[in-house]
Write a structure and sequence with these properties.
The chain is an alpha/beta fold. The protein has a single domain, classed as Alpha-Beta Barrel (TIM Barrel). Helices cover 39% and strands 14% of the residues. Strands 3-4-5-6-7-8-9-10 form an 8-stranded parallel β-barrel, surrounded by 6 helices. A two-stranded antiparallel ribbon has the order 1-2. Strand 7, helix 5 and strand 8 form a beta-alpha-beta unit. Helix 2 crosses helix 3. The longest helix has 21 residues. The two termini are 37 Å apart.
């Protein structure tokens, strides 16, 4: 699998990154630790060497699963994790980082990210200058190699960059969710900041596995995903039917097509979650797909039939 630079650093990451929100179990249903571990190992074997997690995924459970699974390969992988919005005061950031280091069984976190801006989800409104001072100190101490942010707007990203070097932005971004294109994406390209797109398959919607009216199991947060609302069902299903011939003409799945579309954008990688090894292997193969300009133009047209009907709120869920 090819490698790409993380921002303007010398850190090399893969275009397909394994996401581990599911590994935390919280807010998901039917997750098995053994299957998760096999999926992580399968990802590494398939050439995926970049893994994304967060302290809030199961209160550290995802970090611990990831750290254990990748311990034999630590020198050959890039580990990215995130500090929660309720841990953004200076001392809290330092303590959270130390917990993540222990969970991940490592001495250095390759990419440490602010998960949500301060004040999100009724968290304390901490000045970004204070949070960035902690991030900078951690980097100076060798505890982290690089700093990134997640779910920040362009204005918030610009403010954070006043106090330190930011190498990445992690927003929700897919063919069906494109708020980043109108806000932070052009700025990131201009400044050499890598876009790490999460939910690049719209939490499974772009795989075609969920029909209109699908009911999620108890505890699965995707029932709060705006794209799964009944009001969008007809447009979504129609768009999927129009995307299928493109995927079939290339002998790939809808999910692989969705991932290939995301990573075709300059400076953009896709964070793809997986419950099992089979899903991981399918995701990894998307890195081999090369879409043509006509493919991308057609997909753009199809996707906008969904996105043009969405509101301007960049948060993917209605919690």
């Amino acid at each position: 699998m090819e490698f790409r630079r993380l921002g303007t650093s010398d850190i090399e990451i893969t275009p397909i990154i394994m996401g581990t929100w599911q590994a935390g179990k919280a807010m998901w249903a039917g997750i098995d630790d053994r299957e998760t571990t096999r999926a992580i190992q399968a990802a590494f074997d398939a050439g995926i060497t970049t893994f994304d997690t967060a302290e809030s995924y199961g209160k550290g459970h995802a970090e611990r699963i990831l750290g254990e699974a990748l311990a034999p390969h630590r020198d050959r992988v890039v580990l990215a994790t995130k500090v929660a919005p309720y841990h953004l005061k200076y001392d809290q950031v330092i303590e959270a980082c130390h917990r993540s280091l222990v969970n991940l069984r490592t001495e250095t976190i390759d990419l440490y990210q602010i998960h949500w801006p301060a004040g999100s989800f009724k968290s304390q409104a901490v000045p970004i200058e204070e949070t960035m001072k902690a991030m900078n100190d951690l980097q100076a101490q060798g505890k982290i190699r690089a700093v990134g942010v997640s779910n920040f707007s362009r204005a918030q990203l610009e403010e954070a960059r006043r106090y330190g070097r930011i190498l990445s932005l992690q927003p929700p971004y897919s063919l069906f969710w494109r708020h980043a294109e109108e806000d932070a994406m052009p700025y990131c390209r201009e400044k050499g900041i890598t876009l790490l797109a999460y939910s690049p398959m719209a939490q499974g919607l772009l795989t075609g596995k969920f029909g209109a009216g699908h009911r999620f199991a108890k505890g699965d947060h995707r029932k709060r995903n705006k794209l799964f609302r009944q009001e969008h069902a007809e447009r979504v299903q129609r768009a999927l039917e129009e995307l299928r011939p493109i995927a079939e003409s290339r002998g790939i799945t809808l999910g692989q097509l969705a991932l290939a579309w995301v990573i075709a954008h300059p400076g953009t990688c896709a964070i793809a979650g997986a419950r099992n090894a089979e899903q991981v292997l399918e995701n990894a193969k998307a890195a081999e797909v090369r879409l043509t300009a006509p493919d991308l133009a057609r997909m753009d047209e199809i996707g906008r039939r969904v996105t043009d009907c969405l509101d301007q709120d960049p948060v993917l869920w209605k919690f």
